[in-house]
Structures are given as C-alpha cells and as structure tokens.
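Predict structure. Input: PCDC1 protein, 688 residues.
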Amino acid sequence: GQIVYSIAEETERGASVGNIAKDLGIDAATLSARKFRMITGSSKQYFNINASTGALSVSEPIDREQLCELKSDCLLNYELVLENPLELYRMEFKVLDINDNSPSFPLSEYHINMPEFLSPGARFALPNAQDLDEGANSVQNYTLSPDEHFYLEMQIRGDGSKYPELVLKKALDREQQATHRLVLTAKDGGNPPKSGDVPVIVTVLDTNDNAPEFEHSVYRASILENSPSGTLVVQVHATDLDEGPNGEVRYSFSNTTSADLQRMFSIHPHTGEVTVNGILAVQRPLLEMLIEARDNGAFGLSSTAKLLVEITDVNNHGPEITITSLSSPIPEDAVPGTVIALLSILDKDPGENGKVNCQISENLPFQLKPSLQNYYSLVTSELLDREVISEYNITITATDLGSPPITTQKAVWVQISDVNDNPPVFGADTFDVFVEENNPLGAFLYQVSASDPDIGENGRVSYTLRNSTVAGSALTSFLSMNLANGSIYAKRAFDFEQLRSFYFQVEAKDNGSPALSAAITVNVYISDQNDNAPAILYPTSQNGSVAVEVVPRLADEDYLVTKVVADDEDNAQNAWLSYHLAHSSDSTLFQLSPHTGELRTTRSMRSTDFLKHKVVVVVRDHGDPPLSSTVTVGILLADTLPQVLPDFDDSGEPQPLLNATNIYLIVSLACVSFIFAAFIFFLAIIRL
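Output follows.
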C-alpha cells in the first residue's frame, strides 16, 4: 500500500509526523521482529521510526529549497520493507514550503545610464529578484523609492511572466543632477512578508538615445540532451535605430542568468548565435535564460529577451536493477507464489525512454510480478524439487522503450534447501539370500542397501529388523543387523532338516523430521549339506540281533527275499540313496537292486544249499562326501516258520552239519583229550 504525509520544511528534529503502525494497520510490536527498514534514494535520512511504538518523527530538518530547488511539488519517497512475510509499503512525504527565504537580487547594485534627452515615458528594464520559496511565498511585487523623475511599472512578457521596468516620469537634466540613487525593493507574499532591495544608480548621459530592440520578446528552441558542443540552439536578433557605434549591437547573457547555464551555452557577441558549450548535465526539461542586447554607444543602451530551451530526452540511460531484498536459500516445499526477492528497477530517462519491461527466462519455475511503482516481486510459479535442481541462476532482463532500446541484466543466485520429502528406496521389492546349513555363528549373510536422494540428516539411512517370529521364535534370536550399513549376520547355526526357509522384513528409515521409511522383504533359503546318514527303516534288528527273513526251501529264481527300506533327512542328491551288497555268504545265490533295495534269489534253491545265510547291505547317499549305513540280514531256508529262530554267527556263513569249523573243534577236542590222557599216564608211571 501507499500512504502520504505532509510536513512543513524546517520542522525541528524530533517533531512527530504520524504513527506508521496505526496508519498502515501494522502491529507496532512486530516491527522489530520483522526487521523493518526504510529505503530511500535520498542521501540523508530525514525521518525515523520508533521500533516500539511505530511513531514517525523528524530526524533531520528539511530545507525544501536545497532539496527540490525550483520544483513546484517537493516529494520524498520512502519504502518500508518488512520481512516474515516480506511486505513493501510506499510512503510519500510532501514537503510544504514556508516563507524562510527573502527575495534577493543577483548583484549588489545596478547601474543604468540614461541620456538626458530622453522624453518622459522612456523605459528601462530592472533586474528580477529571485526567491527560492514557491507560490505565495515567492516574489509578488516590486516597489521603488520615491523620486520625482522615475516610477515603477510591471510588464508582462509573451509567456506571462512579469518583470519590473523603470519609467521616466520627468525629463532629466544632467547639469542639474547627474546621478539619481534609487532603491528597488522586492516583496514576497508570505506571512509575515519578506523583502529584499538593491540600489539602482541612474547615471544621466547626453548621448545615444535609442536602445536595441529584439525581434521577439521570447525565443523558443529545442535541442537533444546529447547534442555535442558547438550545436546551434537559436539565433537572436535586435535592432538599434541609432547610427554608427550607437547602433552597433553586442549580445550577451544577462547577469540574472545562472552561472551554470552560462557555462553550458555560449552566445556570439556579434551574430547572436546561441550554441552548446559543453555537456547538458541538467535534469530540468525546460531551461530559461535572459539575453541582453547592448549598443556600442558611449553609454550603451540595452534590452533583454527571454530564451526558453526545451531539452529533448534521448535514451542514454539504461535501466538500473537493484535487489532490495533476497531470501535464499528457500525450502523446496515452498508453495507457488512465495516471494523470493524484491527488485527496484529505475530508468533515469523521462517519458517513454524511462519506461521499462522486465522479464526472466520462461523455462524457470519463477515469475516476476509488478509490485509498487518501479518495483517487482520475484515469486515461485511452480513446486520446486531440490533433488532435480538444487540451485538456480536467474537472469533478470530489463529493457526500456527507447529507440534504440537499452537492456540491462542482473543475475540472482537462488539456492534450494532440502526438506525430507523422499523416503529411502531399495533397489528391488524383495531380496533372496541363500545360506548353507551348519553355518558358523556370526556368519555374514547379506547386506541390504537403500538410497535416499535427500541430503544431510534427511538422507542418512539406518536399518532395523521388523519384529516377527520364525518357527515360533523371535527373529532377533536368529539374526542381527548393523544399523548403519544394513549388514545381516546369523546368530545361530541353521539346520536344513528343521528349517528350510523363512522370510523377514528390513525397514530403512531416514533421520529427517518427520522420519520417512520403507521396508523390503528378505527371503532366506537354507541349502542342504550332507550331514545325515541314511536311516534304515526295514528290516530292523532288536537288541543288536540280526534281522531274519524266512525263504521257502525250494524257492524259485528271482524270489523276493526282502526289501531294504531306508530314508535320508537330507535333500536332493544328499538324499538320493543306492543299495549295495557289502557281504554275502553265497554271492551266487542273492542279488540286490541298487535303486529299489530289493533282495532276490539269482537261481532256484537246491536241496544241497545251506539252510542259513547272512548278507550285509550298505545303503549309501550321493552327498559329497557320501554317508552310508549298513544292515545285516539273516536268511533262513525253511518251508514253515520255526518256533525258535536259529542264531547266526559273526562269520556270516551258514554252517552245514560237518563244516570246517566243526571239524576243527572235533580235532581240537581229540587233541586235548589225548594230551590229558598222556599226562595222566605219565603221572601214573612216575608214581609207580
């Protein structure tokens, strides 16, 4: 918004102007917290704001004439900037004029030479007084000290401006009075009025009775502000009806023309050509000068004409871009429309040359919005994503409407700060882990890894095992995890025969606030080792005795004696079993199928075959290294099941009635008996 205050110049220091907090509807208690500051283009800080009450007071008395020179309206522009949120208010101070300057004349005294032969009614231009005040406080009227020969009369030029003229009321007589001393007084319209006077000394001459006269009372010209030195502005011309030296006219600037203008322009004394004499370093579009034409008589007569020079602006100033306020970095979750920076763009050229178009690149998530006069706000137009672009170099281009246009660019560096808007991400939905059974305690199983595109604490990921049970026990009794790097370790040895697979979930959580997390399922597959020997289920023996199978005495060829049944708790090839005959009392009578474990006769039984046989069957798996188990089977040839099963000795061979072992026993018994008898006989002989 904008607020306008009026204040009289020279108001003393500390005087109250108003209350900015009340006038703008701002809580005065928040001014200090919102880092208020007043921005102005003036070299002095004329006003001060109380941070506690919002009271606006004068900090430096204002001299309107020094500040605004001859401008009709004297304005001071301030901007009040508040942060959190960023706001801009424009304050305009209208400085009111007071009658603090008296009229003054450029010279301390003026001399006028008058030929004595002039008739009453002759007129002589008097100097204009200058008053730095404006309006009613400026010069309003002139008075002349009483004199019987002269009176004062006001004249109006073609542009409406007034000037005083000294009018001859009574013919002069140089012989009676050669010099007349008058006092010209200028009064302003202030209350109370102020005045200034200057002595006017009239010297009576008796020569040259015609003053030069200009063709026009006001000359007008227009030049470009960048016109080079020597450029012709206008040529003035005045005529003098006198002849000879009294009719020769010389041109010059009047003493009332300011010294600055006399340095910027020069006038040829003979031709009246007014030319540019330097750089036109002025801010006013219209310049006013008085040109004097004076003849070469012994007592030269003069007249004045006004020259009004209009300075036509050219586009010689580029736009000036000033960053008044900048918020950087900004969070990536800033909503569209968030104000990032406040820019002031000013072009010193007037008119169209001072109008500016401002823009930024279209492919950026920002836009410029006009604020107050000559101010723009740089705001976000889209949602930001630091993970895509973390910083922006925004080039602001300002181009005026001059011909040719002038372009100015300024870069604004905006960084995007991170917010925790991305959860950790795993590389897959599930992970499969394979581990052999009988693993050592603390064995490394797997390392999960999740990435988080955020930075700092928002991107630091830690890992935990989610609570669950495996085979009725807590997961933490099976596994442990490194929270920092996601490594998973076994806390116990796995047994394939008890647990072949299980799954659990790992949670990855960042350290943001609030924290974001993601979970992944890990499938653990336990691979088998050959750690179990085959278990023989049939035939079985009790108390270490040999399992006995009864076979008909005259069984046919390929008769099924028995089938060895075994099982292996291992898996795959570790559980693939094969059957082998490790020992047979008669290798020609029995055969064993290596795949089914069936024990069959290889031929028909004969009456001469032994009645008892023993075979040893080895059951072997295909592990690496292989494991095996054995079973001993006793085979009895009988047509009926005997009430008492015979014993099978350790030799594993069936015994006939007089087999080799029995013969050895008989021979041994006979030998022992013979030795005993011989011993008895020997004792008897000795005794006798």
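The radius of gyration is 63 Å.
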